[in-house]
Amino acid sequence: MDEQKDTFGVEAILRVLEVPVSTFYDWRNAAANPCDRKLRDAELTVLIKEIHAGSDGTYGSPRIHAMLHRQGQAVSRKRVERLMREADIAGVCPARKARTTIRNPDDPLSDDLVKRNFTADAPDKLWVTDLTMIPTGEGPLWLASIKDAFSRRIVGWHTSPTADTALVLTALEYALALRKPPSDGTLIHHADHGCQYTSIALTSRLAKVGIAASMGTVGDSFDNALAENMWSVIKTERIRRRELPTRADADRELFEYIDSFYNTRRIQKRLGWRSPDEYEAAYWNGEDLTVPATKTPPAIDAAPTPPPVQPTRTQRALTPISTP
Q1: Where are the alpha helices (DSSP H) in the chain?
Q2: Has this prediction a pTM greater than 0.85?
Q3: Of 222, 226, 227, 242, which is least surrounded by CB within 10 A?
């Protein structure tokens, strides 16, 4: 309109466009003098984009809404959803899972000590573990990890070109070195029926360090659902969104995601919109860990006590691991 009004005139252009003159001037006046609501929308949109970018584009409206409230921004969930739609911002969605569990029928099985109750009242009461395959340009890279059911923190993980017992043993050793759990049998190590987890080497190691072994029923993914969920999250939020020409590329992406984002910064609803590290820090500080009953999470003003430092990838590679 500004480019053509001197040539044809405003009213002539509006007649061709079939737009009332009053409507045009009302729109221009509103654009030049936005109302408080429009100004607030613009301010929130900037914050939403920053939070979304800070999550590597993974956060949807629930987590962005929670993060805004943590920053002291009073805003409704529906408003966040509307502004995300208008800004063409969305989170990521999981894909279907491939089968990786192969059972050895000759190996003895442990009892199911969990019974699908993936909760714990303190750290190092219940660890769930599993392994998965990550495709790369060089071939498959296998990832084994261990998650603490209390805080959902990944306490140990390791990768290998082969899905053997050494892979799961090394992941266990990293978890033992980091957490130093009790050896009185109060910690449960829950896995599926993969031959790596039913092996004599792993079950002997668990018995040696005083950890109770547990396994679900055969062929039932719900019996190890918390561990299975790890793969959905990691692959959806990082692996499937990256090109991985080499195993080293995949290993680097896993380190950046698990140690630099998931454990330290990725908030979860079940943790009261805290990250795993924040949740454990709150536990050790004696804070109330009750998840808020309302849909509005409280703002967090003070920084939590720093959690135990996760070894860097270089330290992990250089740290000697003693296996039986």
Answers
A1: 5-8, 10-17, 21-32, 36-54, 61-70, 77-86, 165-179, 200-208, 225-237, 247-257, 276-284, 313-318
A2: no
A3: 222
